[in-house]
Amino acid sequence: MSRSLSDLEAKLIMHLEWEKQPVVTIDEAMAILDCSYDHARRVLHRLARRRWLAPLTPGKYELIPAERGEHAFPDTNPLFVGSALVEPYYFSFATAAFFHGLSTQASATVYLATTVRTSRRLYEVRGKKYRLVFQPPHKFFGAVEVDAYGSRVRMAEPEKAVVDALDRPEYAGDTPEIAGMLQRGQGRFDWGKLAEYSLRFKSQTLVQRLGYLLDLLQLPVAEQARDLLLAGIGKSTPYLGRPGQWGTGGEYDATWRIVDNVPRHELLAEIEVR
After folding, report:
1. Alpha-carbon distances, residue 152 vs 8, 39, 53, 147, 191 (angstroms)
2. Could you tell me how far CA 213 lies from the centroid of its own chain?
3. DSSP β-bridge partners for residue 128
4. Which CATH architecture has domain 7-68?
5. What are the residue boundaries of the structural domains of the chain, listed by start?
6. Which of these CATH numbers, 3.30.460, 3.30.70, 1.10.287, 1.25.40, describes 79-267?
7. Which of 274, 237, 229 is nearest to 259 (CA)?
8. Residue pair 89/113 in contact by the 8 Å Cβ criterion
9. Is the predicted pLDDT of residue 263 greater than 80, yes or no?
10. In the predicted model, what is the mean pLDDT of residues 22-27?
């Protein structure tokens, strides 16, 4: 089908290209074209059929710029697609770990942290799965804008990716993968920042997990950062790994007041021998 445009369609496409707006919703098209909701919806539908737009989610479309020519194709970068799903957001957990080189395997699912509570948490767009992970406001920090494969997106800092992973291990490959993340990133972590970020979560379990792993892996943590973590542990005795995954057995560590319930050969399976 030809990529020809009517006057109204051309007005919308020119506005999007001029404003460098890569995504448009029905409500935004209504405002740009000064038309009704149904009219805007029909315009967007026609533009999608003519390959000027590509559907992302119901009522939201990606612009396919004129520079892509007659054989128009949508952006194949999954991080661009993910950035259009919710606002505010940042990529974290397994996705940020792989981006920063803390993990060696890309997850089949793209993970986004957001403060938005929605009934729908899992999306599938163009064959890729995206999971929205709710973060309360006090946990929603530590993201920076990065260039990710040609798209500007918001990504958790390396330290924040680790803290998020310790808080929700199921979204980061679980405890052995997190141990691997700590070992791989030891040469570039800001240990003070890592300790500070973990304390901001107001989770004693998270602090105990982190401190125990740092000691177990004999990582070069600044003494001041380690002391901050020690001061943040409570009197409760959590498990290192999720009991539902790893059971309730294991050895008790008196320093961090934690039970290591992850078999050692599995816990260290992702550790690289140097």
Report:
1. 29, 32, 20, 5, 27
2. 23
3. 125
4. Orthogonal Bundle (1.10)
5. 7-68, 79-267
6. 3.30.460
7. 237
8. yes
9. yes
10. 93
